[in-house]
Amino acid sequence: MSTETTVEKRPRREAANAERTRTGRVYCPNVDIIERADELLVLADMPGVAAEDIDVRFENGTLEIHGRVRPRQDDETRFLLREYGVGDFHRSFEVSEIIDAGRITAECANGVLTLRLPKAESARPRTIAVKPGG
Asked: The whole model's pTM is what?
């Protein structure tokens, strides 16, 4: 039994990929990413965010999601108990598939953002017919 431990040094993140600082509270939405033959399906939980308050960007293989949450009460509200934290949602991903950016669609319903990222034709799996030799 070996007692050696291997430690790999992670490469430093480049400045372009660094986390941005933001004012106010920011949450990381829970996300499911499902791969299908012709698309990637992204489901992001963003409760309290209206469709018009969501920005989705796809550039150079990076998918970025930002949702702004509007306060439910005005600044003069006197809370007896306050457990609901108001803050924006932000998440970004590096997408390894070749995506047809012009066909990406987004929909928000019941606090769930659904993104469909169609794979480019060149990235889709295909079946190759095998002919008998002769």
From this structure: 0.72
